[in-house]
Hints:
- This protein is mainly alpha-helical and 318 residues long.
- It has a domain at 1-69: Alpha-Beta Complex (Conserved hypothetical protein from pyrococcus furiosus pfu- 392566-001, ParB domain).
- The protein has 16 helices and three strands.
- It has a three-stranded mixed beta sheet.
- The chain is globular and about 55 Å long.
Amino acid sequence: MDIVVDPEFERLIPPLSEQELRQLECSLLDDGALSPLVVWAPHNILLDGHHRLRLCRRHGIPFTTAGLEFESRDAARLWIIGHQLGRRNLPPEEIAYYRGQRYQEQRRDPAENLQKAQCFSSGHGVHSADVSPEEQPPKPSANETEDKTARRLARAYNVTERTIRRDAQFTEALDALAGLFGVEFRSDVLAGATGLSKKDIITLAQMPREHLDAASHDWGSLHELAEMWRKRKQRPAQPTPAAEENPPAFVPGDAQECRDALVSILWVCGQKEETLDGLRGQLEQIAGIAREALGQQVEGVEADAATGAPLVTDEDLL
Length: 318
């Protein structure tokens, strides 16, 4: 069978580290391809198994395929996104990216995508021609569509609607930067290798291109640029009322978002790493998650950051 690798679909597949690729290669050489590759029938476009296909072709390892039928590319793309979100070993950046992808896909046509969401896991397409025009529900306004989509996905993934919308911003911004820096940049960000937070990515995508060209491959410089741009756009701090001369350094505004950040940090801490570079990368990921979570709550408070004072004490976390 001549399997077609679609570049757009392939970009939805998370990258593997060198260690993960070696482990997959050894497994294929020792045991063969135990799971079938998933293709969009009858087009034979690959939906899942891109890394396995590449390694099987390299070593001449036989493999099987399983075909799923979809009516459109959007339906096939939704299946890929849902399948990836069902995996348990995704970094926080990839989870946010895929949630943003689902939000963007499903807000286009909520009536059609609701049907797709109900069937994408089984791989059977939905034929809108089966529903008469009289039975078609009225199309909601754009704002109503986005609100319903965010609400539905927030319930599905146990996060807030604000988190879903921010994920969509992150997805759109990262895709825009990948068009500027190359797809490898997106892969590095999703793998958590850059230390850039979601907030950094969204900020960088809003900046003029000439500000980014000089630092396109320097992650540290990109983070500094994002920080400077945010400070430049930041409004002057309002005078503190007399009744609040000594406000707390950190006041949780959304318990669910704080919980999301803690879950992400615990996920990073749970990854076994023995090399110094690996440990440094984990610390950068944790710092990025913490910056983003705390930045959403204490935006505009620069005194603590300037002095290096911690924004959250041990008592705050109890």
